[in-house]
Amino acid sequence: MKVPFIDLKRAHEPLKEELLEAFANTLDHGGFCLGPDVNAFEEGFAKEQGVAGAVGVGSGTEALHLIALALGVGPGDEVIVPDFTFIASAWFAQYVGAKIVFADIDPQTFTIDPQCIEKLITDKTKAIVVTHLFGQAADMDPILALAKDRGIKVVEDSAQAHMALYKGRPVGDIGDAGAFSFYPTKNLGGLGEGGAVTSRDAELLEQIKILRAHGSKERYLNHYVGYNNRLEGLQAASLNVKLPHLRGKTARRQKIARCYLGGINNPDISLPVPARYGESVYHMFTIRHAERDRLKAYLAENGVGSDIVYPYPLHLQPCFNFLGYKEGDFPVSEELAKTCLSLPIVPELTDEEVQYVIDTLNAFE
Ligand SMILES: Cc1ncc(COP(=O)(O)O)c(C=O)c1O
């Protein structure tokens, strides 16, 4: 049997007709950059995600960048960022000239460790980026408590966590702003690049709308230095087709995760630990094994796709050499990078495929 890690063709096949109809509609109304599809998506996504408001932008990376600009983060500021995440979480600080200060992660949830944050706060700390990694919410309450009295902004990188909950609250609606990605492989993915900023702060969302469209409130009158960072109409049209399926697909991911958690009993494999405070949406199902590379090769030989997400902690990325970190600085993050392996968990997997992954893992010696 062959079990793909991700299979976008399989995911899109049942939606093909509906997608083509949606594109025909966009061709008819001609709203290619913003427009009716984007308006409908912003409203629909905010409702489904349970957030006060959403503004569509060009990508998750740009969502982070525009949030940094709107919050006034810049040179002279420090931003605390988890050391184990996708690199764009760190671009939040780097793009606006602020100093990145990495923090280690919690060994169970793989999300930023609030105890590490506390030690890193200085009077220059302007923001904390919290990544809800692999679909698991970070522990927000202690982070919000640290930030509140010091006027530090909390930004939720929710690119991997559509529909995830923290103590019953939707991610992207807890901190000062949330950044979502609709990259094709995300839990809600378009057919290209796309992203959104969410916030309870209507003024901040207005500012994002201005920044995404050349800093302009009024046609050809530019109040700010802005960017061309609009969500495209065709992307929004594809997202409008997919949005009604998000809840069901999330439930399917959670069911597959329960099967893995209950079925994988190979004593050398460490399973992810679901946090007591939240509901993961399992963007990734990431196990750990001391001989990760041998396990990955064995899975491939047996037809099971897997991926190393992520092989390098951020402080050891060559692009951040100038920050002066070294091996050993973040032991939890470093250990995870050496041992992690993500298994197939896309909602399109059949029960037989899930069982095959379990049996294959249990037979590994
Ligand atoms: C945690 C995280 N942050 C930010 C991003 C950036 O999103 P995008 O690829 O849409 O720019 C991604 C996804 O790639 C991500 O996984």
From TrEMBL:
<protein>
    <submittedName>
        <fullName>DegT/DnrJ/EryC1/StrS family aminotransferase</fullName>
    </submittedName>
</protein>
<dbReference type="Pfam" id="PF01041">
    <property type="entry name" value="DegT_DnrJ_EryC1"/>
</dbReference>
<keyword id="KW-0808">Transferase</keyword>
<dbReference type="InterPro" id="IPR015422">
    <property type="entry name" value="PyrdxlP-dep_Trfase_small"/>
</dbReference>
<dbReference type="GO" id="GO:0000271">
    <property type="term" value="P:polysaccharide biosynthetic process"/>
</dbReference>
<dbReference type="InterPro" id="IPR015424">
    <property type="entry name" value="PyrdxlP-dep_Trfase"/>
</dbReference>
<dbReference type="GO" id="GO:0008483">
    <property type="term" value="F:transaminase activity"/>
</dbReference>
<feature type="active site" description="Proton acceptor">
    <location>
        <position position="186"/>
    </location>
</feature>
<feature type="modified residue" description="N6-(pyridoxal phosphate)lysine">
    <location>
        <position position="186"/>
    </location>
</feature>
<dbReference type="InterPro" id="IPR015421">
    <property type="entry name" value="PyrdxlP-dep_Trfase_major"/>
</dbReference>
<comment type="similarity">
    <text>Belongs to the DegT/DnrJ/EryC1 family.</text>
</comment>
<dbReference type="GO" id="GO:0030170">
    <property type="term" value="F:pyridoxal phosphate binding"/>
</dbReference>
<dbReference type="InterPro" id="IPR000653">
    <property type="entry name" value="DegT/StrS_aminotransferase"/>
</dbReference>
<keyword id="KW-0032">Aminotransferase</keyword>
<keyword id="KW-0663">Pyridoxal phosphate</keyword>
